[in-house]
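User: Some background: our group keeps a shared notebook of sequences we're curious about, and every so often someone picks one and asks for a predicted structure to add to the entry. Today it's my turn. The entry only has the sequence so far, pasted here. Could you supply the structure so I can complete it?
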Amino acid sequence: LSNMAAHLAYGRVNMSLLREAARRELREFLDKCAGTKAIVWDDCLTGPFGLIAQYSLLKEHEVEKMFTLKSGSVLSADVKNVIFFVRPRLELMDIIAENVLSEDRHRSQREFSILFVPHRSHLCEHRLDELGVLKSFLHKGEYALDLIPFDWDLLSMESENMFRECYLENDQTSLYHAAKGLMTLQALFGTIPQIFGKGDCARHVANMMLRMKREYKGSQNQILPVFDMLLLLDRNVDLLTPLATQLTYEGLIDEFYGIQNTYVKLPPEKFASKKQGEGGKDLPAEAKKLQLNSAEELYAEIRDKNFNAVGSVLSKKAKIISAAFEERHNAKTVGEIKQFVSQLPHMQAARTSLANHTSIAELIKDVTTSEQFFEHLTVEQEFMSGIDTDKVNSYIEDCIARKDPLLKILRLACMQSVCNNGLKQKVLDYYKREILQTYGYEHILTLSNLEKAGLLKLQTASRNNYPTIRKTLRLWMDDINEQYPNDISYVYSGYAPLSVRLAQILARPGWRSIEEVLKMLPGPHFEERQQLPPGLQKKRQQGENRITLVFFLGGVTYAEIAALRFLSQMEEGGTEYIIATTKLINGTSWIKSMIDKLETSLF
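Assistant: Of course. Here's the predicted structure to add to the notebook entry:
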């Protein structure tokens, strides 16, 4: 196992098997194109691919150069093959054609290939044909990068627009890929005997999986099942959770800086060494890029804690590390000195890691201790606990008057609407009018999208059933302990994510106990069993935990992941969770995916 992927094998489900399978398929395609190669990347794919294969793997297969796909670029590389790695998007085909035609004019002996991720598309190939370049491609392939291992308990499809496609455009392609990804998982880790689900998308995915299984009837899966259960959850069953500000360490990093494919970019001045900063002239201009996953010991320990509990861990660690470095004065004999030196690399890595996270924590603290942040959080918590959700909120009014970022306003207004099961006509009209007059009428499409998604809508039912859901599922907890939590509500300092509560109740006492509430939430709930071949029924050892795969269709937040990890670690829980999703999201990136601007030139 390469150093890059060692952390994927930490848990009871060895995720490096999934990474290995993806690498194998990539190698096979590269080897079809004999000779030296250049890869031209669709920019959106480099991040996800980086988690599967580093440049070293590509180099072993004669990849000598890499370019980003863009208009008007000339590929300056002396190679036999040029391979385009792209998503099946029509607008990308035009750029590819332009690249190929300009190449043909310059050099004739090159061979072109195209690899569509995650699937080939007749429309795209037809477009390449219309543009006269389809015949130039020697190899046309597809590479199903369905589920990418982000960590030992986390998989994501990184499907940019799945929520939008399913709920606004009625396009279910990404659900098909989710089902295929689950088939790949079952091929590696055995058939999952029990499937539970809630929501329309969940129902579709389960149906497709069962159909695919029937079609493969001939080949019985002979692998002893690793997973005991699959829970499929639609994002629209719980629209509230992503709208709330996440209050775990990892959640706040994502809220403020955005984590992309396990990497975060941070303002460099916090990370400049003291010497650089003194003259004030050599400050680095490049953003500081850090990878965040469980391969880093300290990060694995603090990422899921409430941010208010992170400071004390960091200061404890600082004492331990400086004590360890002090040990060198006590090393007298050659053996002791050797022992100290052998530990040095690990200690130095720990010291760097501590310095980085202390800097990040300071950056976050600057925001979380501000007056504005406190005011914002207070409004969120009032909404979630059901205070004044049915009238125009003065804080939202003030934010609009100050022309705060539109996404912030939409996120708050959607939250109020969700916590009130829709807004009264008067309140909704007022918000819409204020938003359009302040931010521009081109946002009328965005408002219509949010309405269609059920986020900012009219209250049609005669009564608001959110209070019933809140009480039955214990979504609001007044007394929470952020330092030593005893309930998942610590991830939002009081609000327990509805999605994770559903998973928790399913494990015990079971969904029958909340039948009434399940009916109030959108979409069907169901249970399916998949027959296992004789001899593969799983016999659990005494005290062995069940393993449940929770698949969020439409996105999941880091705070929800933290809450599920918290449940996995509970002594009496009896269940360990592995999390899969179509995309890692936060409220801002999620609402952004539903923004449409009318071209202003229309008016």
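Suggested note for the entry: The radius of gyration is 26 Å. The first strand starts at residue 37 and ends at 41.
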